[in-house]
Write a structure and sequence with these properties.
binds adenosine-5'-triphosphate; binds magnesium ion; 12 helices; alpha/beta; 8 strands; Rossmann fold
């Protein structure tokens, strides 16, 4: 199963990814959590310590590896390189495990605004594609709202696109944007999870603005989640109420 979680900044993507990953790992599934957000912080939410995270180099910063695989040299960087680098060994080599979940940190590519096609970019896109199409682990991706590293073929193979929203117009607007973008990329279905809800009115706010059969469920606003974040801990270990709600959401994904 391949799951991509997206949505506006700060809505709770990383929280949802970390708890879902924890739940699947507890069942004994081989889970690969992939941090595709340029502002990556999934590691902390999965329970890695700062010291452990300092040891992890994002793939985008592995200049020698990227040069080797794409065949680009420092001089030719950005000019001539392979657009189909071999990447199948990369998840196993570079993912790090914590509490039964493996984490792969992709990192950021400076695109300088204008859709750059550089070796780093090709490499990340190729890895995402491999994870979705060619790797047999259960992959959960924590992505920004831009769907940057998803090409057409890859996007169509993702089983679940989950857009996290909160009770507010801006994150709902992002949902509509992602839905359009996802449609253009050949995504079959886009789901929504309403997070940080505090009341029936909050649920209604989201229900009224989201297509009925897109809505997977809700996660309540929870002080436990805030506290876990303050302690640089995992919401899965500490947020019991939220974990139960996410279990219901997971049940709807089947398998
Ligand atoms: N259900 C919730 N109740 C209370 N706080 C929450 C809840 N979900 C997330 N938060 C808090 O909201 C903040 C943002 O959450 P999170 O990092 O998961 O969002 P994100 O969408 O991944 O953000 P970013 O776009 O910055 O990556 C965190 O401080 C988190 O603890
Ligand atoms: Mg995040």
């Amino acid at each position: 199963m391949k799951i991509a979680v997206t949505g506006k900044g700060g809505v709770g993507k990383t929280t949802l990814v970390s708890v879902l990953a924890g739940l699947y790992a507890r069942e004994g599934k081989m889970v690969l959590a992939v941090d595709v957000d340029p502002d990556s912080n999934l590691g902390l939410a999965l329970g890695f310590t700062e010291a452990e995270l300092a040891e992890i180099t994002p793939i985008s910063e592995m200049t020698d590896l990227i040069a080797e695989r794409t065949g680009s040299t420092k001089d030719s960087f950005g000019k001539f390189f392979k657009i189909n680098p071999q990447v199948f060994d990369i998840p196993d080599r570079f993912a790090r495990e914590k509490n039964g979940v493996r984490l792969l940190v992709m990192g950021t590519v400076e695109t300088g605004g204008g859709g750059c096609v550089c070796p780093e970019h090709v490499m990340l896109k190729r890895i995402v594609s491999h994870l979705v199409v060619g790797d047999d682990s259960l992959v959960i991706m924590d992505m920004e709202a831009g769907l940057e590293h998803l090409g057409r073929g890859t996007a169509g193979m993702v089983d679940f696109f989950i857009v996290v929203t909160e009770p507010g117009a801006r994150s709902i607007q992002t949902y509509h944007r992602i839905k359009k973008l996802a449609g253009d990329l050949g995504v079959k279905k886009v789901y929504v999870v309403g997070n940080k809800v505090r009341s029936e009115a909050d649920r209604l706010f989201i229900k009224e603005r989201v297509e009925e059969d897109d809505l997977l469920g809700f996660i309540s606003y929870s002080d436990e989640v805030i506290d876990a974040d303050k302690r640089e801990g995992s919401p899965f270990e500490t947020g019991e109420a939220v974990t139960r709600e996410i279990e219901l959401i997971k049940a709807k994904l089947g398998k």
